[in-house]
Amino acid sequence: MRIGSVAAMEQLADCFDGYYLQKENNRNFDVIKKLKSWCDENSKTLHILANSGCMQNCAFQTFHDNLIAHSVGENGIENVNLGFSAPCHRFLSSLGAEKGITKFMQSNFIRPEEVHLYEEYFNEMKLATRMHSRPTMVLAAYTRGKFSGNLLDLTEPSYSSLFKGYVVDNAKISSDWVNSAYFCNKNCHDCTVCNTAVKKAVYKIDF
Question: What is the chain's mean pLDDT, rounded?
Answer without folding.
Answer: 90
